[in-house]
Amino acid sequence: MFRNNPQNWGEIFQTLRDFQKAPPSITLLASHKYSTYQLLIATLISLRTKDNVTLAAAQRLFAIANTPSEICNLSHKKIEKIIFPSGFYKRKAKTIQQISCILVHQYNGILPSKEALLLNLPGVGRKTATLVLGLGFHIPAICVDTHVHRIANRMGWIKTKKVEDTELELRTLVPKQYWIEINSLLVSFGQQICRPISPLCSHCMFQTTCPKKNVKQYR
């Protein structure tokens, strides 16, 4: 059930855009015209990894190999060394090589733009697939991570417990024109202001309208 259905989505998103100083790493790469394949690989590297580490690791990898064929021909041990110290780099290196080889042998080296096919690739979950669909293929999709899930509930837009439910609810609530950018904007907002613990509500642009759902302590 929706708790609060804002009518001023345009104002909300413009406020978030004005606040954002530096976009998350994958949004930044997308703005520099990296290929959809490169965005997928960078997104895999970014999981459980800070933005600056993600950017450096992705750029090192793409300086050596930047196509499915080139990365397929690298050993996963080589990929491990390149993307270190990203989190779970050994597992990611194996996944990156597997995906690259699958694209070479099954898709002629081209990353498919269909959600179901992306989800069939090893290590690709909904968060990764929707981010690549939106930023890479410009197909409206809502990427829900912990920031989007937390903030959407905290602001009272929705009331959900599971990330997958959050995506479904937001798809019926938020106008489609904002789907692609919602993740980038709420990640930045969530990292700097609407933090998981003790959010900086006194500095928040929405402090007069936010119901602070489930917030026990704030500054």
Task: Give the name of the CATH superfamily of the largest domain.
Answer: Hypothetical protein, domain 2
Straight-line distance between termini: 29 Å
CATH class of the largest domain: Mainly Alpha
Helix content: 55-70%
Please give the domain count: 2
Q: How does the major sheet shape up?
A: none
Q: Name the shape in a single word.
A: elongated
Total count of strands: 0
Average pLDDT figure: 95
- Going by CATH, the architecture of the largest domain would be Orthogonal Bundle
**Which residues sit in consecutive blocks of at least 5 with pLDDT less than 50?**
none
CATH topology of the largest domain: Endonuclease III, domain 1
Count of DSSP-assigned helices: 12
Order of helices and strands: HHHHHHHHHHHH
Strand content: under 5%
Structural class assignment: mainly alpha
From the alpha-carbon coordinates, what is the Rg to the nearest angstrom? 18 Å
Write structural notes for this entry.
The protein has 219 residues and is mostly helical. The protein folds into two domains: 9-22 and 141-203, Orthogonal Bundle (Endonuclease Iii, domain 2), CATH 1.10.1670; 25-135, Endonuclease III, domain 1. It is built from twelve helices and no strands. Helix 2 runs antiparallel to helix 3, helix 3 (36-46) runs antiparallel to helix 9 (126-135) and helix 6 crosses helix 7 (89-106). The longest helix has 18 residues, at 89-106.
